[in-house]
Amino acid sequence: MSDAWPPAPRPDPDALKRRAAVVQAAYVGDTEVVLAHLADSDDRVRSSVYVALHKLGRLDQAIIDSGTTDASARVRKTLAELAATRTDIPISALLDDTNDAVCEMACWAAGEHGEDATWLVPQLSQIGTKHETPLCREAAIAALGAVGHPTGLPAILAGTKDRPNVRRRAVLALAPFEGAEVTAALDAALNDRDWQVRQAAEDLLEEPEA
Prior knowledge:
Elements: H1 13-28, H2 31-35, H3 43-56, H4 61-68, H5 73-82, H6 91-95, H7 100-112, H8 121-130, H9 134-147, H10 153-159, H11 164-173, H12 180-189, H13 195-205
Helix pairs in contact: 1-3, 3-5, 5-7, 7-9, 8-9, 8-10, 9-10, 9-11, 10-11, 11-13
């Protein structure tokens, strides 16, 4: 079961002011003001702090470690999003996060690294085939397609037999791959009961114009 954060309460005017102060400080390059809110009681403010420090080039390893272990899933999700363009944020740990939104974002971030994320293929394959949440399986399958490593193909092929949203993503993720198994999976997808799965397969099998 995901430890998703509860429905957002009415905005706290004071927290909104603090968050605005962080954004303004980042805009003018005032790192001291941003850092002063690093342990703010409101997780939205803390999330804004990490984004601001990233923009200011002041997101060091100690601060990253603090963010990836923050009690708030909202903050950890922010770190997962930032991991799409950084190699110093531990994507592997975020992929293992108990919160579905964090795991899904971490999968997307891994895919953004393309071939450089080959080392994450075993973990992404595990999520893509075993995770209890379809959105996480879908995100992991998409990442495996973006990475395009052969060892990720079995998980993608398994995804073509999953729920409709996962099947659609799995068919698209087959684009970098070739071979009899891939052809068979695409042929089967042409007869899928979901029209979007069929359309995805048709698009991949369509002969390119000369």
